[in-house]
Write a structure and sequence with these properties.
The complex is a heterodimer of chains A (328) and B (311). Chain A has 328 residues and is an all-alpha fold. Chain A folds into two domains: 60 residues, no CATH class; 220 residues, MetI-like (MetI-like fold, Orthogonal Bundle). Helices cover 74% and strands 2% of the residues of chain A. Chain A has 14 helices and two strands; from the N terminus they run ααααββαααααααααα. A two-stranded antiparallel ribbon of chain A has the order 1-2. In chain A, a hairpin with a 6-residue loop joins β1 and β2. In chain A, α1 packs antiparallel against α14 and α7 packs parallel to α12. The longest helix of chain A has 36 residues. Chain B has a two-stranded antiparallel sheet. With 311 residues, chain B is an all-alpha fold. Classes of the chains: A mainly alpha (328), B mainly alpha (311). At the A-B interface, α1, α6, α7, α8 and α12 of A face α6, α7, α11, α12 and α13 of B. Chain A: Belongs to the binding-protein-dependent transport system permease family. Chain A: One of its GO terms (cellular component) is plasma membrane. Chain A: Its main location: membrane.
Chain lengths: 328, 311
């Protein structure tokens, strides 16, 4: 088990370095010169050269990348002479736009994106799994049909469409909810939830529909297994059969997609955040792109990749807990 | 014809798997409806210039007489200016014909989504077959590559790549960028299927009979994986359409004045209070297309790949 975890962690680091390398190459080589952008319109040749040296842009690309990666693990000193700047661990560099450490910017925005993702995940798991399991247990009845038609329709709605409908229906027409404004959980949990309810719903509708479809098929397959028949035959109550025997095995495939979905959303739901004006990582990323702020773009991409990879690892480890057949 | 029970469809005895699949598909109402919708939108996309010339407007043509300058450029007439002249109404402020724009938008959206799907399926099938059949180092290398690709935060990465690249053909770039992240899904399906096929007796027989790897792959393995691949392909098309729309919605997709559904929806959001039809029309097109492809994919999976997916 420990050996397995160790091997997987090495793999995780390898994958992240590969992603960092690809992202670094694309965003530092392709676009226009960041030094020129930082220097402004009336820029002398000497000043440009000084800025390049300061930013480390005069170094060969592999050197820049190596510095970047070591900076993440140990922190590093940037620039030279009077412009020396120490960037503490974990150093993702400084934003070109407002000279703040990228790490601070990310950690500033993370609570918003995480609140959005986690709240939506709770909602969609509740809605999606209960719909899916209900449909599976009542296979080929009217309930099943209605739920599945609803699910396939909801899965086809783009998230911005659902969001606009919710804004129009619940805020503009009914006036039931406030227009979302982020309130930190620590300040006022009730306001935090009521403000985020709408974005949660908008995201949850889409994912709940997909989870309902997945969990239905998985439950139907599980409930047809011989061991379920055995459990029934020995006279266990239906509830015990469904919850203890069926759900446990039926939910393992769901766990895989859940890890990927949650991991992907934690680092920012770009569309949802921009529609509801939530100051999360998605918005930070979108803003950084329009100003060509590469360190921030790179930072967000890496953070997102980390979440995905770590979520996948967590799922694989959880598998051993959920499914007794899995051993590492 | 042998004796068939009266309720069974009239399938000739000894018909091949593809004939059986077709007969099974033909019995489903959802297949007929979704095929009709898909065909409608494909025809619309293919015949976009023709259709918009029938409507009398080109997608980039302004019609100031269809909007009211005193009401902030509101379309004149009910339901966003729907009239005999403008079949689906007009865009606020500019007065561009919505029918022409929706039809041309279909062309852009479907062209990108379908080409990206083709890239994904070709690359994924090739990688999956190679990994599954050759095994060993090839498999290890390809599987690692799949892991890395799947760990990319794809939407974030796509948005970034689309906004970084400035002076390139937007449609081509978007196709490539969307296609780049889809192939591992197909590759995994194909790899699994190939692994289960490569030691079947008929494959061994072909090997003993002197067939080379190329011949075995194309003649013996490929036909065996094609069923699941077709089902999977149809199921990823809606995702591709939605991704294209999402990128265009965020303003990093095709550039105006070229219309695309996602971009039209994004523009219409500003007017959703005063001119809801402008929002409803492209959204409905997007919704119907995605829905139809999903239903079609569900049916194909049930028939062609009965083991995975729904019982």
């Amino acid at each position: 088990m420990i050996l397995y975890i160790g091997r997987r962690l090495l793999g995780v680091i390898g994958v992240l370095i590969a992603i960092a390398a690809v992202t670094f190459t694309i965003f530092y080589v392709l676009p226009s010169d960041p030094a020129a952008a930082a220097c402004g319109k009336s820029c002398s040749v000497e000043r440009l050269a000084a800025i390049r040296t300061h930013m480390g842009l005069d170094q060969p690309l592999w050197r820049q990348f190596a510095d970047f990666v070591t900076g993440i693990f140990t922190g590093r000193t940037m620039g030279s002479g009077q412009y020396t700047l120490h960037c503490a661990f974990p150093c993702f560099g400084y934003s070109y736009e407002n000279s703040q450490p990228v790490w601070d910017l990310l950690m500033d925005r993370l609570p918003v994106s995480a609140s959005l993702a986690v709240g939506a995940a709770v909602l969609w798991l509740l809605l999606g799994l209960s719909a899916g399991v209900t449909a599976a247990l009542r296979k080929d009845t009217v309930t099943d049909r209605v739920l599945m038609v609803g699910a396939v329709a909801a899965a086809s709605l783009p998230v911005y469409f659902t969001s606009m409908m919710l804004i129009y229906g619940l805020i503009r027409t009914a006036g039931l909810l406030p227009y979302p404004q982020y309130v930190p959980f620590g300040h006022d949990p009730l306001h935090w939830a009521s403000n985020l309810l709408l974005p949660w719903l908008a995201l949850a509708v889409l994912y709940a529909a997909m989870y309902a479809r997945q969990s239905r098929s998985s439950m139907i397959e599980t409930m047809a297994e011989p061991y379920i028949r055995t459990a029934r035959a020995k006279g266990l109550p239906r509830r015990t059969v469904v919850v203890k025997h069926g759900l446990r095995a039926g939910m393992t495939p769901i766990l895989t997609i859940f890890g990927m979905d949650l991991g992907g959303l934690l680092a920012g739901a770009v569309i949802t955040e921009s529609i509801f004006g939530l100051p999360g990582i998605g918005r930070l990323f979108y803003g950084a792109l329009s100003t060509g702020d590469q360190p921030v773009v790179l930072g967000v991409t890496l953070l997102a990749a980390t979440f995905i990879v770590v979520a996948n690892l967590a799922v694989d480890l959880l598998y051993a807990v959920v499914d007794p057949r899995v051993r590492y | 014809m042998t004796a068939l029970s009266p309720s069974a469809p009239a399938v000739p005895a000894g018909s091949g798997p593809w004939q059986l699949a077709r007969a099974e598909l033909r019995r489903r109402a959802s297949v007929k409806i979704s095929l009709a919708v898909v065909a409608l939108f494909l025809l619309m996309a293919a015949g976009a210039p023709l259709l918009s010339s029938l409507g009398g407007w080109s997608p980039e043509e302004f019609d100031k007489s269809a909007v009211d300058p005193y009401l902030g450029g509101q379309p004149i007439g009910p339901l966003g200016g729907i009239s005999a002249d403008h079949w689906l109404g007009v865009e606020p402020v500019t007065g561009r014909d919505l029918f022409a724009r929706v039809v041309h938008g279909a062309q852009v959206s479907l062209l990108i989504a379908l080409t990206a799907t083709a890239i994904v399926v070709l690359a994924g099938t090739a990688a999956g077959i190679a990994a599954g059949y050759f095994g060993g180092r090839t498999d290890a290398a390809l599987s690692r590559l799949m892991d890395v690709t799947m760990s990319f935060p794809s939407l974030i990465f796509m948005i970034a790549m689309m906004s970084v690249a400035k002076d390139v053909n937007r449609v081509l770039l978007m196709t490539a960028v969307i296609g780049l992240f889809g192939w591992p899904g197909v590759a995994r399906v194909v790899r699994g299927q190939t692994l289960s096929l490569k030691h079947r007796e008929y494959v061994d027989a072909a090997r003993v009979g002197g067939s080379g790897p190329w011949r075995i792959l194309t003649r013996d393995i490929l036909p065996g994986v094609s069923g699941p691949v077709i089902a999977y392909t149809t199921l990823i098309i809606p995702g591709m359409i939605a991704t294209e729309a999402a990128l265009s919605y965020l303003g990093v997709g095709v550039r105006p004045p070229t219309p695309s559904w996602g971009q039209m929806i994004a523009e219409s959001v500003a007017f959703y209070d005063t001119d809801p039809m402008y929002f409803v029309i492209p959204s409905t097109c997007l919704f119907l297309t995605v829905l139809a492809f999903t239903l079609l994919g569900d049916a194909l999976r049930d028939v062609l790949d009965p083991r995975s997916g729904r019982a």
